[in-house]
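Hey, quick one: can you model this chain's 3D structure?
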Amino acid sequence: MTNLTTEQVGWLTTSEFTQISGLQLKVLGTSQIQALETEDLSSFNLDQIQSLSTSSVQAFTTEQVAALTSDQATYLLPSQIAVMSQAQVQAVSSEDLRVLDMAQLQSITTSALISLSTTAIQSLVDSQIGLLSVNQIKSLTTEQVAGLATSQVQQLLDSQLAVLSTTQVQAIETEDLAALTDAQLPLLSLNQIKSLTTSQIGAITTAQVQVLDATQVGAMSLAQVEALNSEDFKLLNMDQLQYLTTGVVSNLSTDRIQQLTTNQVGMLSQKQVKVLTTEQIVALTTDQIGNLNADQLIVITSTQLRAIELQDMPFLTGAQFDALGYAKVNSLTSDQKAAVTSSQIAAISDESIQGIFI
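Sure thing. Here's the predicted structure for all 358 residues.
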């Protein structure tokens, strides 16, 4: 076989190639390999394909690679795939890509993998995404990440999600992010959460908000918290709410403050209540004011207290006045004191009443 010229190799028929052993094919030179007709190459059996040296595989033209059948693609050894150039890997048909197993997929070099078009990446079977190595996942371009189908994104494993860069995370399309499973979303690191765009945050579903870890919510910036869907914001539980930084809480818009449920208002920590601005206090609804608890009222400042609107004053309970104590009650404006009703006064302790009348 080594003595055959490229012209003579080209003359061999498909039926003649079927008679050639793997050992004979193994000694073919680069020019002889490239002289193989595509229809002849596509007739090679498992033994013939696997007998080809890595240098022979490297010699394949892109036309020859494209001519390989799906069965032949399954015959390729990982060591053979590992030496394929970017152009050769790009020439592998979608049908052939879809039949590669884990060992074969992981043998594709990162340089070859990132050269694949988004269409080629999308052609992978969903389950193949989970077969890619962490180094391969790390190497994916933002265009490739953005091009992943929703069902492919859902196949990303814990170890794969962990190595996604913040740039890659930002490239995940909103509909794909919204499709992350309840098991996947809590696995995102705090840096990955911080990197999410406001559009991505806005796409998070109700179910996803409920599985977010409190520390993940705490890692969110003001812009991200503001970007949460209002219905999702109302679902934040006590742990999640209390992890919001005071810097975020003190800068929440009045609209966002008003979206807190009455139960959520009562969940705010003392540190969070202390940093509420007078504008935020003014924005609190009557029901929200009525749900401030004793622990919160203990730390509320006189300045904050005086920001409570007059129409809200009649809805403060006797227990709330008592939690405020004499000094704070006494710090109320004259108009606020005048707004206190007789039924409220009847429910207030003697000490707190003195704050109103003295």
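One thing worth noting: The chain has a mean pLDDT of 91.
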